[in-house]
Design a protein that fits this description.
The chain contains 28 helices and 9 strands. By secondary structure, the protein is an alpha+beta fold. Among the domains are: 15-155, Endopeptidase. Chain P, domain 1 (Glutathione S-transferase Yfyf (Class Pi), Chain A, domain 2), CATH 1.20.1050.40; 189-266, no CATH class; 368-506 and 533-553, Neurolysin, domain 3. The strands form 3 sheets. A 5-stranded mixed beta sheet has the order 3-4-5-9-6, with helices on both faces. A two-stranded antiparallel sheet has the order 1-2. The radius of gyration is 25 Å and the shape is globular. The mean pLDDT is 94.
Length: 692
């Protein structure tokens, strides 16, 4: 007989929206509260453990007795924990954070236990040896699962296995702490200005956004933050050199001991040191020479040497151009801006002035032609034409914020294919940057029903000001296209096996290819005309303005190339050559990398690495080079469209069939060769960047 307490607990679980949403099509974002997180997770993990025990009791492994029920467990957990991870990123709060941290620890323990479950590992090996699935998707999913078991310590024994688990748990905690420090440090700083002279040079749209920000905080004047839509234009346009320095110092010392306003409790330095020590130890336990070698075991690149050779080749080809660009910038700053010394906080300002001088164009001049709804409609029109789909908004789906929207994708016959949420604006308690993430993955469930994919698309653009629509820079439009490319990769998959559906199973150094591919369309007149309309009179972008925009496309592209190579080389060498327990420091190591490849060295107080979330909290550790390698792939793919017609539906269909929809079921180099008819070449990237 159940006690009253037990009955009450069960009743609460039945009403828990996270558990309810695991059985419905979409998360119940209007009902989820922090107090729902851990009760739902505890219940889900208990059922998952019971399910794993049943699988481990099987005596004759088959796809239906091992892999399929594991997919059921994985899917249910992701439907419960996924919305929590998402809410932590877009609606962080003092009440959600501790619940999320508790959940992170539980999920890390679960994932490590699963990855080291020797009975499951043995069952999968037996399945592969005795009853290997003939289906391409199942075969690849099984091979990837076995690889991940090995990389997660399944073959370790005794103390080594226990130590590896402890390391993975601690690394999960460190990554969470790193990201939260960056978020807290970013939002701890505000620059409140009240004098007109202090905002000299700022465009009217930037002033209006800053004034609206101030009003939201019950202040007069203008408020600037370290969020990108505020920080970037301030650095580009503010004429006050001391205020630019103030903003720059605040930005580059985030999450470090040098951070302003006394937020030393957000220092990520110790977290970086501990992370590097633990990553190296974990790699050694698995028999790898370094964490970089461990990371590359699941990527396209064959070795650390192959990665560094690739990066250094690009650096060598880019450096002469970058040196010319920097010399031009310094000369312009000296003669036109009276800046005899070009400091780090002068570079964005001087660069924007030089851009305007050379091309008579600025991002602010373009913004009136890129109102939010027009841009969305134009982007949708493009992909609808390319892929034979239709996109429509639904307003009856609950979201986590009033600004978040929901869209459905159908084919031309009206059959549902996928859906996505879109959250475009920067706001407090929202992680910076832009990203795509899975909400629901395409999957053929055991009952035969086909589950359709749903994506999260998140950006951090300025919200509408007053009665004007949100107006975006061309850079922000490009960011939107980039993230939507990720979304299409997830949503247009044709796979029905969970482990290789969408972006799952795709080599990490190829996952940026579809997103970077989409960016190219933002520079085509035919495509720009689909969305560039002045928000007041509806006029298209004038030819002269478009020509100037195109002429400025590769402005300082070599300096930007070297900056990305600097980050990439620092990352891969940090995880291969650096001794985290030696006498040197991470800062000294970064300085050495800059000496090798950079043409512009930041000041000594710069602590860029302390907010480098990509490699310390975002899954890109020893993999940041992926952006550059994927650019090679994406540029070469787009070259096929340039050759055959940029909106050629036959080319798009071939791209979708051979690359966009294959997910992880096929080796990406084979897929690329099937589309392009050859191996990838760097020539298209160099040409697109103006470096040939």
């Amino acid at each position: 007989m159940k006690t009253t307490a037990t009955s009450s607990a069960n009743e609460n679980l039945e009403k828990n929206p996270l558990l309810q949403s695991a059985h419905t099509s979409l998360p119940l974002f209007d009902e989820i509260r922090p107090e729902h997180v851990n009760p739902a997770l505890d219940e889900a993990l208990k059922k998952a453990a019971d399910g794993v025990a049943e699988i481990c009791a099987q005596t004759e492994p088959s796809w239906e007795s091992v892999m399929q029920p594991l997919d059921v467990i994985d899917e249910r957990l992701s439907r419960i924990w996924g919305p929590v991870v998402h809410l932590n990123a877009v609606c962080d709060s003092d009440t959600l954070r501790p619940e999320y941290q508790r959940g992170v620890a539980k999920m890390a323990a679960w994932q490590t236990d699963m990855a080291q479950n020797k009975i499951l590992f043995s069952a999968m090996r037996t399945l592969r040896e005795t009853a290997m699935p003939k289906d391409e998707q199942r075969k690849q999913a099984l091979d990837l699962a076995l690889r991940d078991f090995r990389l997660s310590g399944a073959e370790l024994r005794g103390d080594d296995k226990s130590r590896f688990k402890d390391i993975q748990m601690r690394l999960s905690e460190l990554a969470t702490g790193f990201e939260q420090h960056v978020l807290d440090a970013t939002h701890a700083f505000e620059l409140h200005l009240s004098e007109e002279a202090e905002i000299a040079g700022l465009p009217e749209s930037v002033r209006q956004a800053a004034a609206q920000r101030a009003l939201e905080k019950q202040k007069q004047g203008w408020l600037f933050t370290l969020d990108a839509p505020s920080y970037i234009p301030f650095m580009q346009y503010a004429e006050s050199r001391p205020l630019r320095e103030t903003m720059y110092r605040a930005f580059v010392t985030r999450a470090s001991t040098g951070q302003q306003d006394g937020h030393d409790d957000c220092d990520n330095g110790p977290l970086i040191d501990e992370t590097l020590v633990l990553r190296k130890e974990a790699a050694k336990l698995l028999g790898f020479a370094s964490y970089a070698d461990y990371s590359l075991a699941s990527k396209m690149a064959t070795s650390v040497e192959a990665v560094t050779d690739f990066l250094r080749e690009l650096a060598e080809k880019s450096r002469p151009y970058a040196e010319k660009e920097l010399a031009e910038l310094r000369a312009f700053a000296r003669t036109e801006l009276d800046l005899t010394e070009l400091s780090a906080w002068d570079v964005p300002f001087a660069s924007e002035r030089l851009r305007r001088s050379k091309y008579a164009i600025s991002q602010e001049e373009l913004k009136p032609y890129f109102p939010e709804n027009r841009v969305l409609e134009g982007m949708f029109t493009l992909v609808e034409k390319l892929y034979g789909i239709r996109i429509a908004e639904r307003t009856d789906v609950p979201t986590w914020h009033a600004h978040a929207r929901y869209f459905e994708i159908k084919n031309n016959a009206g059959e549902a294919l996928a859906a996505f949420y879109f959250d475009p604006y920067a706001r407090p308690h929202k992680r910076g940057g832009a990203w795509m993430d899975e909400c629901i993955v395409r999957w053929r469930r055991p009952d035969g029903a086909l589950q359709l994919p749903v994506a999260y698309l998140v950006c951090n653009f300025d919200a509408p000001v007053g009665d004007k629509p949100a107006l975006w820079t061309h850079d922000e439009v490009t960011t939107l296209f980039h993230e939507f490319g990720h979304g299409l990769h997830h949503m247009l998959t044709r796979n029905e096996v969970l482990g290789v559906s969408g972006i799952r199973g795709v080599a990490w150094d190829a996952v940026e290819m579809p997103s970077q591919f989409m960016e190219n369309f933002c520079w085509e007149r035919e495509v720009v005309d689909m969305f560039a309309r002045h928000f007041e009179n509806g006029e298209t972008l004038p030819d002269d303005l478009f020509d100037r925009m195109l002429a400025a496309k590769n402005f300082q592209s070599a300096m930007q190339m070297l900056r990305q190579i600097e980050f990439s080389l620092f990352d891969i060498l940090l995880h291969s050559d650096y001794d985290p327990q030696g006498d040197g420091s991470v800062q000294q190591f970064l300085d050495n990398v800059r000496t090798e490849v950079a043409v512009l060295t930041p000041p000594a107080f710069n602590r860029f690495q302390n907010s480098f979330s990509h490699i310390f909290a975002g899954g890109y550790g020893a993999g940041y080079y992926s952006y550059k390698w994927a650019e090679v792939l994406s540029a070469d793919v787009y070259a096929a469209f340039e050759e055959e017609g940029i909106t050629n539906v036959q080319t798009a269909a071939r791209f979708r069939d051979e690359l966009l929809s294959v997910g992880g079921r096929r080796d990406i180099m084979q897929a690329f060769a099937a589309f392009r008819g050859r191996a990838p070449s760097v020539d298209a990237l160099l040409r697109h960047s103006g470096l040939i």
